[in-house]
Here is the input.
Amino acid sequence: MNGVTARRSRAQGWFTNWEYYVMLLPGLAFFLVFKYVPMFGIIMAFQDYSPFQGVTGSQWVGFKHFSVMFAYDGFWRLLRNTLLISFYNIVFFFPAPIIIALMLNELRREWFKKTVQTIIYLPHFISWVVVGSITFFLLNPENGFINQMIAHNGGSTINFLSDPDWFRTLILSQNIWKEVGWGTIIFLAALAGVDPQLYEASVMDGAGRMRQLWHITLPAMKSTIVILFILRLGSVLDVGFEQIFLMLNDLVYEVGDVFETYVFREGLSGGRFSFGVAVGVFKSVIGLVLIMGANWLAKKAGEEGIY
Amino acid sequence: MRIGETWGSKLLGIVNVILLLILSSCTLFPFIYILATSLAPIEQVLRGGIILWPERLSWDAYEAILFNDNFVRSIYVTLMVTVIGTLTNLILTAFMAYPLSKKGLGGRGFILFLVLFSMLFGGGMIPTYILVKSVGLLNSMWSLILPGAISAFNLIILKNFFQSIPEELEEAARIDGCRNFGVLFKIVLPLSMPALATFTLFYAVGNWNQFFNAVLYITKPSLWTVQVFLRQMIFQGSTQDLIGQAGVISGVEIIPTTIQMAAIVVSTVPILIVYPFLQKHFAQGVMLGSVKG
Here is the structure.
């Protein structure tokens, strides 16, 4: 009897909720078509895909493209470049928003804090094309601002844009300029949650600014810092692809070529579709494993994961 | 200043303010440099040297870029993509987020899993390109709208926001005879205005700034977005070039720096105009996701 009632109420639920399912339909169709259909495209990595025969008609070749990939020097170069750019970002970019948030938190004058925030959030909304263009205007060897400054002071100009030694620094600097301010938001939110009474009590106990920072402010941010750091480690293969694509040129491939730029150039433009997909699949699978590992680690550390 | 503060602590406060002023200046400097050069007369630019301020205001560069048909067309295309795209983004996201905020809905867990998994794993560039090509969207404005129609991240944040709206409000509307669509439009969406404002900004900026999709899916110069136009104009003559796509402004003619910078200013101003209006919602918008459910 109970089973029947439950079934009837569930059927009734489906029926009275039909409007909910109508609302869901367009979005669900989007995810299935534009996210899940391409996932099945991954089987191309195990074929010799030809645009004329399509995914259904192309010949199966098993792991051929993967063995070619692992034996290919260029592939290891991609991996090295990606990891190094990520490493630069973790070491030099990651701590910056934390420090700036702490500095903003020390400000007493609300209007000054608001003004600084307005200014440093701004670059987040600028496109990478514009950031790349500005970089070009500032750094190009003919009439770039920085090089004119160098020349003005009697130095010799540096070709920042095509010197492999400068490429990673360039990418890192762009990233810092564009995203550091925006990155402070999440830490400022963590700081806003601190009970002001804690500071008042600590003043009673004779604590100075440094002691407040160490015993109240930093502990309040700890959990945000830990989880963002772990997640950052989990996405170590994700480097700003549009940004790098824009700054890349023949002279800096050795240090700047990363997975997506390679897949675009060799796979899509070069017509080596299946090989391109294989390189992409490698990145996606390792990325998935890393992010799941990071999430597991975050939970292990007593934090909430991302899922 | 608080009473009883030590000199060391005061000094620290002053150093802090100075460092933040330096940070703000470094952030603003590129903007000012571009704006100043774009307004400088061409003689000053040709003479070379460091430009920090225009000798006199010259609008020549702006006149040149605003009368360039290719530029104006690219702005028009981008505007269409941004308006239609952002509306599509908002409607699809809100329609999907609302049912997903109902905990008792059958199949909810599975759909949420599909959404979440799509954030962690994807088919990648080539399969997506082949899909867009095979559904006939190449060289169509929709190729810049549909493949990114819903951001899974925004969807989950909005779903959580809807969940935080007290169920009693919706119940009251239902007793008054509203059905689900009515509740969404009359109760839930009006209560979510701050969240929706934030998403409008994020989606609109994303649409306006998107570049790589246009490189992938658009080959007809008449459909170029402003970002592709800028890239063609400014990076032309540098070692890289878009494959199979020749320069856009009449062959290899050298475009004066001032005009290039004026194009940057014109294409960035729309974003800077909406920015202050929506700024107060940022922190809230970013933090919405922290409500788990």
